[in-house]
Amino acid sequence: MTKTNEIKDKVRLQDAQALASGYSPAIRAMEIGAIVSFTALELALVYRLYNNPHGGPWLLLSAVLLGYLAADFVSGFVHWMGDTWGSTEMPVLGKALIRPFREHHVDEKAITRHDFVETNGNNCLISLPVAIAAVSMPLSSSGWVFCASFLGAMIFWVMATNQFHKWSHMDTPPALIGFLQRVHLILPPEHHRIHHTAPFNKYYCITVGWMNRPLTMVSFFPLMERLVTWATGLVPREDDIGDEAAKALQAAQAAAEPPVVQVAKELLTKATTATTEESAPVGTRPSA
Length: 288
Known about the structure:
The protein has 288 residues and is mainly α. The protein is built from 14 helices and no strands. α1 (2-10) runs antiparallel to α13.
């Protein structure tokens, strides 16, 4: 706990107003175009899937559910990349994609003031290549239909992720949304609050959050960070929380064991102790 507090004290975030001002008319126009293109591609895919002889309700339902789970992982992976790497000073990507991640850690309520375009445009933009791939599939067998349905469902949920994310930050979301949050069918506020504890290095999945615990147990993202640092020399989160805090966190994570390893060691210790106690000789009564 002391080490965590020391890292939090070192965190230095960027100026919220400067970050917010980076949302330019050019970026908004790009997002509007992305939303229109994404919607057109998804409708084209639905049209191609409608009454396809190789489909069926169970195949489509399983594709939608698996797409939901995959979207949760994808949301976490993209969120991790946006939080951890790059800089707002990068050409194009810095202002369009990385800036919103930096702004959100400084002013987490800013997303509740964004309209539909600013909330969902980015996710539509990054989903376009997958949408094109799904529409281009031949749909000549049940395998192709499943793949196209899975990809189409996944990017639909990816598109909806920032809307779910926005609702998780609202003080009073609509009644239906509040119910879905309470039963954890979309991202619950209390679950997402874990991510918004500085230094913002866990629970990245924000579609529904189901993947957060298993990924945390195996230290998926810290291991990915070590791999990227080994390959490139870059320091994770340096642009987001400042150089000093980023390096302190990097050192702390390098020294920590994955939770699944810690649990395995605890179970092994308990099992060894129990075996030792069972095999210990029982005292005998002395004869008279």
